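To make this tangible, we now present a fold written out as tokens:
***
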Amino acid sequence: MGLRKFRRAVAIQHKRKMVDQEIKYKILKALEVNPELSQRDLAEKLGISLGKANYCIRALIEKGLVKVQRFRNAQNKSAYFYLLTPSGIEEKARVTIRFLKAKLKEYERLREEIKQLKSEANKLV
């Protein structure tokens, strides 16, 4: 594999990791605010597929970050509460900090790019 292909593969892997972190953050945030969200509602709210929502929630449950409880008197017997565990709340805080750092880094990069584009545009005028 050439250096160019390697760098591209690393960049794609990094981007996927960032997207996964963002989805994890958004799921934990959404469930903290509204533990009664269905997987379908969560998927729609986050703009992801139902399968991806199911996969992510199962992963969070397996990691012990989210606990599932059935509604007791629900007409729909397949309705669940998704509650953040204490370790889920801690992880949400860590993910929030990482997400914020990544967004600030992205903001600074875009800000610098805008500054350069303005400079180039001013030279053309």
Q: What stands out?
A: The chain has one domain: 3-124.
